[in-house]
Amino acid sequence: MKKVILIGGAPTTGKSTIAQQLSKKLNLPWISTDQIRGMVRPYARRKDFPELVLPEGAETAESFLTKFSVEEIADMELAQGKDVWPAVKYLIEEDFGWKEGVIIEGVNITPDLVSEYKDAENIHPIFLVDEDADRMRHIVYTRGLWSSARNYSDELKPKEVEWAMLFSKKLKESAKKFDFPCVEIEKGSDDLKRVIEILEI
Question: Which domains, ranges and CATH numbers included, belong to the chain?
Fold first, then answer.
Protein backbone atom coordinates (compact mmCIF):
# COMPACT_ATOMS: atom_id res chain seq x y z
CA MET A 1 0.00 0.00 0.00
CA LYS A 2 1.59 3.26 -1.08
CA LYS A 3 2.08 5.97 1.52
CA VAL A 4 0.50 9.36 0.76
CA ILE A 5 1.63 12.27 2.95
CA LEU A 6 -0.46 15.45 2.68
CA ILE A 7 1.03 18.66 4.09
CA GLY A 8 -1.20 21.72 4.38
CA GLY A 9 -0.52 25.13 5.85
CA ALA A 10 -0.64 28.86 5.36
CA PRO A 11 1.87 30.62 3.10
CA THR A 12 5.38 30.96 4.60
CA THR A 13 4.97 28.06 7.06
CA GLY A 14 7.67 25.95 5.43
CA LYS A 15 5.55 23.33 3.68
CA SER A 16 7.96 23.01 0.75
CA THR A 17 10.97 22.80 3.08
CA ILE A 18 9.39 20.02 5.13
CA ALA A 19 8.25 18.21 1.96
CA GLN A 20 11.77 18.34 0.51
CA GLN A 21 13.28 17.03 3.74
CA LEU A 22 10.73 14.24 4.01
CA SER A 23 11.22 13.39 0.35
CA LYS A 24 14.93 12.93 0.91
CA LYS A 25 14.51 10.99 4.15
CA LEU A 26 11.75 8.66 2.91
CA ASN A 27 12.89 8.49 -0.72
CA LEU A 28 9.46 9.62 -1.92
CA PRO A 29 8.66 12.07 -4.75
CA TRP A 30 6.89 15.28 -3.80
CA ILE A 31 4.76 17.85 -5.59
CA SER A 32 3.20 21.16 -4.58
CA THR A 33 -0.40 22.22 -5.14
CA ASP A 34 1.13 25.38 -6.64
CA GLN A 35 2.44 23.18 -9.45
CA ILE A 36 -0.84 21.28 -9.73
CA ARG A 37 -2.81 24.54 -9.82
CA GLY A 38 -0.48 25.88 -12.50
CA MET A 39 -1.10 22.84 -14.67
CA VAL A 40 -4.89 22.97 -14.24
CA ARG A 41 -5.53 26.74 -14.40
CA PRO A 42 -4.94 27.22 -18.18
CA TYR A 43 -7.74 24.74 -18.90
CA ALA A 44 -10.19 25.95 -16.25
CA ARG A 45 -13.24 27.93 -17.31
CA ARG A 46 -14.33 30.62 -14.88
CA LYS A 47 -17.92 29.35 -14.73
CA ASP A 48 -16.77 25.81 -13.88
CA PHE A 49 -13.91 26.66 -11.51
CA PRO A 50 -14.63 30.16 -10.16
CA GLU A 51 -12.18 29.86 -7.25
CA LEU A 52 -9.32 28.81 -9.50
CA VAL A 53 -9.35 31.90 -11.70
CA LEU A 54 -8.48 35.36 -10.39
CA PRO A 55 -11.54 37.61 -10.04
CA GLU A 56 -12.11 39.98 -12.93
CA GLY A 57 -10.58 43.37 -12.26
CA ALA A 58 -8.25 41.95 -9.60
CA GLU A 59 -5.44 40.48 -11.65
CA THR A 60 -2.63 42.53 -10.08
CA ALA A 61 -1.36 42.65 -6.51
CA GLU A 62 -2.57 46.23 -6.14
CA SER A 63 -6.09 45.60 -7.48
CA PHE A 64 -6.52 42.31 -5.63
CA LEU A 65 -5.29 43.51 -2.24
CA THR A 66 -7.23 46.76 -2.54
CA LYS A 67 -10.50 45.24 -3.72
CA PHE A 68 -10.88 42.53 -1.07
CA SER A 69 -10.79 42.54 2.73
CA VAL A 70 -8.43 40.38 4.77
CA GLU A 71 -11.33 38.05 5.66
CA GLU A 72 -12.41 37.76 2.02
CA ILE A 73 -8.90 36.94 0.84
CA ALA A 74 -8.35 34.28 3.50
CA ASP A 75 -11.71 32.68 2.64
CA MET A 76 -10.97 32.84 -1.09
CA GLU A 77 -7.63 31.12 -0.57
CA LEU A 78 -9.28 28.38 1.48
CA ALA A 79 -12.07 27.97 -1.08
CA GLN A 80 -9.56 27.67 -3.92
CA GLY A 81 -8.66 24.24 -2.59
CA LYS A 82 -12.05 22.89 -3.67
CA ASP A 83 -11.25 23.59 -7.31
CA VAL A 84 -7.76 22.11 -7.06
CA TRP A 85 -8.87 19.06 -5.08
CA PRO A 86 -10.08 16.94 -8.06
CA ALA A 87 -6.56 17.07 -9.50
CA VAL A 88 -5.03 16.25 -6.10
CA LYS A 89 -7.42 13.29 -5.75
CA TYR A 90 -6.39 12.06 -9.16
CA LEU A 91 -2.74 12.06 -8.09
CA ILE A 92 -3.61 10.25 -4.87
CA GLU A 93 -5.77 7.56 -6.41
CA GLU A 94 -4.18 6.82 -9.78
CA ASP A 95 -1.04 4.78 -10.37
CA PHE A 96 1.79 7.00 -11.60
CA GLY A 97 4.53 4.49 -10.90
CA TRP A 98 5.02 5.90 -7.40
CA LYS A 99 5.36 2.45 -5.92
CA GLU A 100 6.20 3.61 -2.40
CA GLY A 101 3.99 6.69 -2.35
CA VAL A 102 4.08 10.45 -2.74
CA ILE A 103 4.18 13.69 -0.72
CA ILE A 104 1.75 16.44 -1.74
CA GLU A 105 2.03 19.84 -0.05
CA GLY A 106 0.42 23.23 -0.39
CA VAL A 107 -2.11 25.80 0.75
CA ASN A 108 -4.78 23.91 -1.18
CA ILE A 109 -4.53 20.91 1.16
CA THR A 110 -7.25 21.72 3.70
CA PRO A 111 -8.75 19.64 6.53
CA ASP A 112 -12.30 19.65 5.16
CA LEU A 113 -11.09 18.18 1.86
CA VAL A 114 -8.70 15.68 3.42
CA SER A 115 -11.49 14.46 5.73
CA GLU A 116 -12.71 12.44 2.74
CA TYR A 117 -9.78 10.10 3.46
CA LYS A 118 -10.06 10.16 7.24
CA ASP A 119 -10.30 6.37 7.53
CA ALA A 120 -7.71 5.55 4.88
CA GLU A 121 -4.71 3.85 6.49
CA ASN A 122 -2.27 4.97 3.82
CA ILE A 123 -3.19 8.69 3.88
CA HIS A 124 -1.14 10.72 6.38
CA PRO A 125 -2.23 14.38 6.69
CA ILE A 126 -0.51 17.05 8.75
CA PHE A 127 -0.98 20.82 8.92
CA LEU A 128 1.71 23.39 9.62
CA VAL A 129 0.94 26.65 11.40
CA ASP A 130 3.13 29.59 12.34
CA GLU A 131 1.63 32.16 14.70
CA ASP A 132 4.77 34.30 14.86
CA ALA A 133 3.66 37.48 13.07
CA ASP A 134 7.17 38.95 13.01
CA ARG A 135 8.56 35.87 11.29
CA MET A 136 5.76 35.89 8.74
CA ARG A 137 6.20 39.63 8.17
CA HIS A 138 9.91 39.15 7.49
CA ILE A 139 9.21 36.47 4.86
CA VAL A 140 6.45 38.49 3.19
CA TYR A 141 8.65 41.59 2.93
CA THR A 142 11.73 39.72 1.69
CA ARG A 143 10.13 36.99 -0.44
CA GLY A 144 6.59 38.20 -1.15
CA LEU A 145 3.35 36.26 -1.47
CA TRP A 146 1.78 37.64 -4.63
CA SER A 147 5.05 37.28 -6.51
CA SER A 148 8.65 38.24 -5.82
CA ALA A 149 8.63 40.92 -3.11
CA ARG A 150 10.46 43.41 -5.33
CA ASN A 151 7.68 43.28 -7.94
CA TYR A 152 5.07 45.14 -5.89
CA SER A 153 4.87 47.87 -3.27
CA ASP A 154 5.68 47.33 0.41
CA GLU A 155 2.53 49.30 1.17
CA LEU A 156 0.49 46.24 0.14
CA LYS A 157 2.41 43.72 2.23
CA PRO A 158 0.86 44.39 5.68
CA LYS A 159 -2.44 43.14 4.27
CA GLU A 160 -0.73 39.99 3.01
CA VAL A 161 0.63 39.35 6.49
CA GLU A 162 -2.87 39.82 7.94
CA TRP A 163 -4.64 37.45 5.59
CA ALA A 164 -1.92 34.80 5.87
CA MET A 165 -2.15 34.94 9.68
CA LEU A 166 -5.94 34.66 9.48
CA PHE A 167 -5.64 31.77 7.01
CA SER A 168 -3.36 29.98 9.49
CA LYS A 169 -5.83 30.53 12.32
CA LYS A 170 -8.77 29.24 10.27
CA LEU A 171 -6.75 26.23 9.12
CA LYS A 172 -5.79 25.37 12.68
CA GLU A 173 -9.43 25.56 13.81
CA SER A 174 -10.50 23.33 10.92
CA ALA A 175 -7.76 20.78 11.63
CA LYS A 176 -8.93 20.63 15.25
CA LYS A 177 -12.53 20.12 14.11
CA PHE A 178 -11.54 17.11 12.01
CA ASP A 179 -9.00 15.87 14.57
CA PHE A 180 -6.02 16.21 12.24
CA PRO A 181 -2.54 16.89 13.63
CA CYS A 182 -1.03 20.38 13.58
CA VAL A 183 2.59 21.35 14.09
CA GLU A 184 3.59 24.79 15.33
CA ILE A 185 6.51 25.56 13.06
CA GLU A 186 9.52 27.28 14.61
CA LYS A 187 11.72 27.32 11.49
CA GLY A 188 14.34 25.28 13.26
CA SER A 189 16.01 21.88 13.03
CA ASP A 190 13.37 20.27 15.27
CA ASP A 191 10.49 20.95 12.87
CA LEU A 192 11.13 17.88 10.73
CA LYS A 193 11.63 15.69 13.78
CA ARG A 194 8.27 16.74 15.23
CA VAL A 195 6.51 16.18 11.90
CA ILE A 196 7.94 12.65 11.66
CA GLU A 197 6.97 11.86 15.25
CA ILE A 198 3.38 13.04 14.73
CA LEU A 199 3.02 11.20 11.43
CA GLU A 200 4.55 8.07 13.03
CA ILE A 201 6.53 7.29 9.89
Answer: 3-199 (3.40.50.300)
